Amino acid sequence: MPSKKPVTDPTRLKAQQLREAQERTDRRIRLTIISVVTVVVLAIIAAVTIAIVRGGDDGQSGSQSGDAAAVLGPYADGSPVLLSNLGLGQTDDSLPTLTEYFDYTCHVCADVDVAVGARLSDQAEKGAFNIAYQPVTTVGMAYQKPATTASLIVAQKDPEHWVDFHHALLAYFEEQFNAGNGTVIQDLDKSTEQVAQIATEAGVPADVVSTFTQNSVDAYLATTTNEWTSKTFDGRDPSSFGTPEFVKDGTTVIKLSGSSADAIFETIMTGMGVTAK
Fold first, then answer.
1. How far apart are CA 213 and CA 10, in angstroms?
2. Gap between the Cα atoms of 174 and 15, Å rounded
3. How far apart are CA 166 and CA 163, in angstroms?
4. What is the reported pTM?
5. What is the tens place of the pLDDT at every residue in 3-43?
6. Residues near 27 by Cβ (< 8 Å), separated by ≥ 6?
7. Cα–Cα distance for residue pair 169/2, rounded to 1 Å
8. 73: which DSSP letter?
9. Can you tell me the distance from the alpha carbon of 154 to that of 209, in angstroms, rounded to the nearest whole number?
């Protein structure tokens, strides 16, 4: 078979160069969007947060179900999910703590988690720092309620699979949101079924999945969101903040920047004052 001849016609050559440039751009654009949106959308999300806190839910989320204290156990008071080299639910007092404020239906949270979330949890498990994952409400689509409820149940009953489940919940939302598909994430019943499926695929045992409730987190999220919005972290602009918000040792906001996953990851590591393990 004859070898393919190089393109020599100037017009065709230019077209080929443009196509190749576009392909390179397409590969970069996703993570570029993360960095740009993270900066630009924070003020909008902050405004949404205030509206949700003041106005309650939008009718999509349904009423809180089940005995929240019984369902959420140690998390019923608004506690975050802790992760460290000592395991889930524990912190190493010799290490700094990274708190991540997030909403399972915040598309920027989902984009950032897909980009660097697994690397951050891996660093926590290796002993670089502790992580406190703190769910709050900034967007509050229907998917948030069963996702948050199930996340807190798995953190108690199946800690071995919680990290994978947490990342999978955000990855699913990221996929649906970026595809412009609200069929599931804006429907409470469909979201509840999908969360159970995600849990099963993440390895959560059937007897744990069977304990999931549709929504036991209204009071939990009201508490965490009110506490979060009232904080006065160093480096936070009180007029424009939102999720995801990363905070070192409960005092200082880490500003995300960069146009690649590596750059965003390094921003967080530098903000924490640690090197990757």
1. 64
2. 33
3. 5
4. 0.81
5. 444 555 666 665 666 666 555 544 444 544 444 444 434 43
6. none
7. 50
8. G
9. 8
